[in-house]
Each structure stands twice: as C-alpha cells, then as structure tokens.
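Subject: sequence -> structure tokens, single chain

Hey, anyone have a minute? Need the predicted structure for the following. Not urgent.
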Amino acid sequence: MIHSCFVMPNEGAERFTRMRKLALLLAGAILMASAPLLGHHGTGISYDNTKSFMRKATVTEFRYANPHPQIFFDMKNDKGEVEHWSGEIAANPSQLVASGWGRKRSMEALAPGTEVTLTIAPSRAGGTVGLVQKIVNGKGEEILRMIGLGNPGPAQPQQ
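Reply:
Had a minute. Here:
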C-alpha cells in the first residue's frame, strides 16, 4: 500500500513551475492595472498658468466626463477671427458634484449657445486648447472656478 505522503520525484519541480507561472501572471496583472496611473498628466506640465487670460466665448458643447469634463467654445482671437477652442476642466465629476454642480445643472448652465467669460491657461504645446480655470455666465455669476489646484494666478483681460 502506497501512502499519499510519498512525493513523486518530478512533483516538486512541477509544483515550482506552476507557482512561478502564477507569480508571473499576477505580476503582469498588477502592471497592467497600474498602467493608467502612469498615463495621467499633471496640469502644471500640460498648461501654462503664468499665461492665463480671460476672454468672452460662446459654448458649442459641454461633456460631463471622466477623468475631466470638457468644454468646447468659440472665441475671437486678437485679429477678431473666430477660433474653435477646447478646454479641460481640472475638477473631476465627483468634485463638481461635491461643489453643487451635478450633470444636469452643469449641462443646463453650459448649453450650446451660452455666452460666458472664461479664464484659460493655454496649452504649453500651443494651439487652441487650454485648462479652464474659471467660468462666468452672461449675468456675471461664477459658474466654476478651479477646485483643488491652488491659485491660478492673475489672468490678463482680453476682448
């Protein structure tokens, strides 16, 4: 009679190989799960807060999305030509909700055609992209200001 306490000569090597494969699989899963953390940008790297400016604009679209809501708007450049801009809002949706700006309220306040005054930090890469630091509606009411990113610095008024 053979007892189960006896180990076959190759059984230890097979068990070691299985454990090694499991460890490699687990390490790969952890690396894949952490990859999105490496892809997130810092606003200080992407946008230049020292060159922030204020300008009147007309909202063309607002997307209440993760990780950051997006606003698309038209505004005139220094030559009076209309430019189509996109802006990232630094606050994420949960921060907006905590400050009283849920999806419905935000979508209504920033509906296409809404006239606003924006404070924007332009992209360091150039173009018509920026970080929206503050939004004021046509009545002069502040709709949004930066949340949790410190003082955006003085903005230069522009028409």
